DNA sequence: CAGACATATAGAAAAATGTCAATATGTTCT
DNA sequence: AGAACATATTGACATTTTTCTATATGTCTG
């Protein structure tokens, strides 16, 4: 399996939960700390911590500590690249398997 | 949780498996029947059948029968809309929570 | 340094997912 | 109708994911 499918699928999986997708949306205009995000959901603090780790490990979000707080923000470059990749996946391509099938 | 997060997350989840993402890629330039897709993977026929159902139920793929075969193709309209939605999720927005936070 | 606060980790239980073998269904051809 | 073929469904099992409680770690303040 080509690496691009694996990498892209990992990012999609991280966002394939409504709650985490909403977190990405919340972060779209800037940084938020964990406690600010937590306020918006009916989940416990460890659950959020786990969700944020999933987003960080997928390369969707970066984190930094400032005092007692951890601030999260989107890795926009990574997200934009994934978005482009996804667009290419949908689009017709000259090297698609269905062409080779017609030729073969 | 807003419906748009639920619907989008469902589509992302369906594509959050490298194999299914590759199937979407394979379908990007046209229809393929189940047996043609199956040839490309080391999985059993019931496994593929299950994967295709996931894609159909997420609204990513449509299916039609032609004789003994089931042909699958992408629901491009649905995919394009999801792609746009995803783009909006990433982008800064005036109604983002972080703005209301600054005001409040 | 002790207490308060923010976040992370560990461990456990429930739910969802991925995959298979076996079998059923639907279709075509003879 | 019966055989052959393509796909779907069922039932089972292993793995992964989700979420919690309890506890640990890191940071600031007095």
What does this structure look like?
2 copies of one chain form a homodimer. Chain A has 104 residues and is α+β, with helices and mostly antiparallel strands. Chain A is 59% helix and 13% strand. Chain A has a 3-stranded antiparallel β-sheet. Chain A has 6 helices and 3 strands. In chain A, strand 2 and strand 3 form a beta hairpin. Chains A and B meet through helix 1, helix 2, helix 5 and helix 6 of A and helix 1, helix 2, helix 5 and helix 6 of B. Chain A binds a DNA duplex (30 and 30 nucleotides) through helix 4.
Layout of secondary structure:
2 copies of one chain form a homodimer.
Chain A: H1 3-14, H2 18-26, E1 32-33, H3 34-38, H4 45-57, E2 61-66, E3 69-74, H5 76-90, H6 97-103
Antiparallel strand pairs in A: 1-3, 2-3
Chain A binds a DNA duplex (30 and 30 nucleotides) through residues 17, 33-35, 43-54, 65, 67-70.
